Amino acid sequence: MTLAVIAVGLLAGILGAILGLGGGVVVVPALEFVLPLFGRDISISQAVAVSQIGVLAVGLSGAASYLQQGLVRARTGYLLSPYTILGGAVGSFLGLVLPARAVATVFALLLLYSAYNLLRGLRRVEVERAPSRLVPPAMTFAGVMSGLLGIGGGTVQVPVLNLLAGVPIRQAIATSTFIMGLTAVGNALVYHAGGLLDVRLAAGVALGVLIGARAGAGLQSRIPAAQLKLFFSVLLIFTAGQLLWKYWS
């Protein structure tokens, strides 16, 4: 089971590095479907709690690399992180009290949204411009999604930083990763206090994610992105359907 958990983290890290998706999009449904094969039942809230540690590992590792490259807007990160940390705390609390069916439904919608963005391609702004007043509430919403669903928040944060805050895309990704690590600390503490965080599973996922992210960075230029995006989009749609069937049938 431990090897399977590490393998889940590896897959999440590789796909996250290649496609720019948060590892939680892979980790949460994978744990839901893989662990029962080993006789271990896990609720979606427990899977979200474990995913927070994977997000923390990616955030710390990625932020260190981006800081060395000078891509992180540290001032922007420090100014916006209180909104995501507050939203993350709210989202984590909702993850503790909401019915599993509600969390699974929101997660399935997120998977479908991610598949849509992969197939369509996100709009990007490369020229810096003045930030919108919608940035603080949008970043708070990103924090809520991060806490509730165990995702890094980049699925929401990167478009917000790029399209609303006017930060060029590469710096938006780097700053989002920086903020992600700060937010995941608070999220993990809330889930740990709620008794849902399995430290052993979390350590396995974090180890796999760190190794997979490095491997994915090396594979990014060798794999045809269009084919990989199509395959993963189909996988996301299938997984969303499985989650909805499991919790609504």
TrEMBL record:
Keywords recorded for this protein, A-Z: Cell membrane, Membrane, Transmembrane, Transmembrane helix
Membrane-spanning ranges: 6-35, 47-67, 79-97, 102-119, 139-165, 172-193, 199-216, 228-248
Tree of life domain: Bacteria
Record's keyword annotation contains Acyltransferase: no
Topology term for the membrane: Multi-pass membrane protein
Pfam family, one: TauE
Main localization, broad class: membrane
UniProt-annotated location(s): Cell membrane; Membrane
Entry's family note: Belongs to the 4-toluene sulfonate uptake permease (TSUP) (TC 2.A.102) family.
Name of the protein: Probable membrane transporter protein
Species of the source: Deinococcus rhizophilus
